[in-house]
Amino acid sequence: MTENNGKRNADAAEKTAVAETKSNKKSLILKILILAVVLIAIAAMWFVKNASDSKAAPEQTAEASEGAEGAEESTTVSETADFALEAEFIDLAALLSYKLPIIIDFGADSCVPCKLMAPVLVSVNAAYQGKAIVKFVDVWQNPGAASGFPVQVIPTQVFINADGTPYVPSKDLGVEFGFYSTRDTQEHVFTVHQGGLTEEQMEAILADMGVSK
């Protein structure tokens, strides 16, 4: 009896050990499966995020490029307008920002002296591009454009140095200038010429302002 009981106990212990081994194997397999699922999920999230970033980067680059092109185009348009001969108004602050000598002619397309001077202005404006600013404003079509400037007759030219100060001739150029100062401080604020100028006279004035053709 004792031997039989011992054998049965041994068999039971063996079966229990086998069962525990199988249970442990199942638990291990389950843990491995769970870990694999987690790793796959992490990999999927990483892939989706990187794919999204890669797609967004070219779009952002394109937007930045378009923005830069827009800014460049805006600057080019502004500069073209500032250096063009004809203007409807004078933005003196914008013109002074280029730090170039400025000649502004206030006239009209329909007055005789202005018509005679028109080709001179066209020629000088073209010849001194980037070296000086030469502008023409039709004050009959744009009556408010001469506001703030001492314009009594047309044509009248206003001369401004590159540093923003009124031009003062260093020698006799055979041109009669008018000088305007403030009443209270007597500060010189404008140098003008009334009437037409020849191309030679315009070039002599620009040369005296420090501009070479």
Could you explain how this protein is built, in words?
The protein is an alpha/beta fold and 213 residues long. The protein is 53% helix and 14% strand. The chain has four helices and six strands, in the order αβαβαββββα. It has helices spanning 2-83, 92-96, 112-127, 199-208, and strands at 86-87, 102-107, 133-138, 156-160, 178-181, 188-194. It has a six-stranded mixed β-sheet. Strand 5 (178-181) and strand 6 form a beta hairpin. The longest helix is centred in the first third of the chain and has 82 residues, at 2-83. It is elongated and about 115 Å long. The N and C termini lie far apart (131 Å). Residues 54-59 have low confidence and may be disordered.
